[in-house]
Amino acid sequence: MTKEMMLEAARPLLCTAIKTAERVRVKGVDVTCEEDIPAAVERCWHDCLSDLDVEVWGVDASKLIQDMQLLGASVQGNVLRLVTRQGFRADIICYDAAAEIENADAFWFIAVQALGKLLRRDYLIAAHLSHMLLMDTLVVQMVQRDEEYHTNYHRYGHSEALRYLQADDAAYADLTAGDPTYAHIARQLVRAALCHDGAENYFAIWRGYLKEMES
Asked: For residue 94, what is the enclosing H or E element?
C-alpha cells in the first residue's frame, strides 16, 4: 500500500461521502470538495500500514463502501473498521447514522490488524490478536464436531487434532522469518489464516506490506 494507492482507494469513498453526507471530516479537518482529498490522505499517511480516519454525519456507512471489495470489517458501535482486498484500511465514524453493513467478516479485519501490529513490532498486541484468531479456528472446529456427531454435549472428547497445528506453513517461510518472537507470532497468523477461506489474499497483502517497508 503506497501513498498513491491509498489515495486511489480513498477517493471514491470520500467523493461519495462529500455528495451524500451532511459533513465529512478526515483527521479532524473538514473535507468539502474533491480537491480536499489529497491533503486529507496526506494527514492520515504515516507508512504503508496507515489507515484513513473518516467522520461522517447523516449517512450510513453502507452507502460509502458499495464499490469496495472488502476483505474484512468490524462494526463497533457507530464505527465501521474495514480492510479491502488490496490492503486499504479505513475507520469510519458515523454520527446520526448506522455503521452496520452486511456480511462483515471480522476474522480478516483482525488478521490484518494483527499483521500491522506485528510489522510495527508491537508484539504484545499482535500476539493477543493472533490468539483471538486461533480461538476462532477452534470455535469453527467445535461447531463442525457438533454437526458431525449430532450433539453439543461432551462428557468426553474424541482426541481431535487441532486443525491449526496441522496447517502446513512451509510455503510461507518468507513471511515468518525474523527474531524468535516475531517468527512465533507470524506462524500463528499464517496457521490461523490457512484455516479460513481467503488466506491467499491475506498473504498477498502481507507480502505487499513487506515490499513497501523494504523499499
From this structure: strand 89-95
State the pTM of this model. Answer: 0.88
- Residue 143 and residue 146: Cα distance in Å, rounded? 5
Q: How distant is the alpha carbon of residue 119 from its chain centre?
A: 14
Question: Do 163 and 141 touch, CB atoms closer than 8 A?
Answer: yes
Rounded to a whole number of angstroms, the distance between the first and last alpha carbons of the chain is 12
> Which set of grid coordinates corresponds to residue 6?
491509498
Could you give phi then psi for residue 84, rounded to 5 degrees? -90, 175
Give the integer Cα–Cα distance in Å for 48 and 33. Answer: 25
- pLDDT score recorded for residue 159: 60
Radius of gyration of the chain (CA): 19
Percent of the chain with pLDDT over 90: 73
The 3-state secondary structure of 36-84, one letter per residue: HHHHHHHHHCCCCCCCEEEEEECCCHHHHCCCCCEEEEEEECCEEEEEE
Cα 82 from Cα 70, distance rounded (Å)? 7
| Sheet of strand 52-57: strand arrangement | 29-30, 23-26, 52-57, 89-95, 79-84, 70-76
User: In the chain, pLDDT over 70 holds for what percent of residues?
Assistant: 96
Residue 154 backbone dihedrals phi, psi, to 5 degrees? -135, 90
